[in-house]
Amino acid sequence: MQLETYNSPYTGIWKAEPNGNNRNLLFQFQPNQNIVNGIAADEEYLYITVQEVDSITYQPKKLMYQIDIQTGEAAELFSFNANDWLFGAYEDNLIILSYDSAEKEFAYYRYCVTNGETEEFFRYSATDDEKAPVTALNGNILYLVQPIGNTKAEVSCINLKNNQKLVLCSEIPFFSSETTTILDFVDNKMILQVSDTRQQDSKLAKHYQYGIDLKTGEVKENLLLIENGGQAEFINICGAYKNEYCVLSGYDPQTVTLFDDNGTAYESSIYFPVYAFITKEDYWNGSEKWIAPIDLTKGG
């Protein structure tokens, strides 16, 4: 599915095959509408936050739309408050993040699409951005990285089907919510990146990356690094298959011929990404034992 943002009359959501062929307009916005905040989807519907400007008062309002992926039929589910955002979705529930200005807290709600009921399941203080929890939704589980000291954090999760909270691990390095990121969920692990930027000199910043097992809470540190533009970066997991990962293992500099605005040819170096397979054991042990590197610069 492809989202177009060109000017009216073509502004809308377009449905297409993965290769871009057979594009069809699924939903068209009105001139006073545009998408804001997040987008969520399940197998049947697309959920979007639409900002609509009143043609008389010129006041904006946020609306939640449910769009049938097959027919494009749209239904308005509810109106957002100014401080509400679509955070995610699971099954027939939408997760809404809301700012409570009276209590100076952020709260998470679930909205059931089937019956229209809402229920709060988590909130935290908004008075200290650096100590706020880092959150991410994976299926029906909300994962939290919450500081428990000056340089440590606890990783926990809330099962949204029964509101039960489980602590996965503690003593994870933590320096600020602004420098802590849940990158992905891969191979039943949360990939967490933490940076220590307390030094004024950015060259002295330290970066850490961990894989946290979602069942056992076991923590593995990613020690594999590659150089990119003179800077070290983590070798991230692109995909998992049986006992192996596919990773970006490095960059291959190659000389290519380019042309400037006057049509004059010149040579330049381009760094092509190189992908490879590695066993899961070697990856988490920090061993660069690549299996069958994949050269994307060659056909076949």
Automatic annotation (TrEMBL):
<protein>
    <recommendedName>
        <fullName>DUF5050 domain-containing protein</fullName>
    </recommendedName>
</protein>
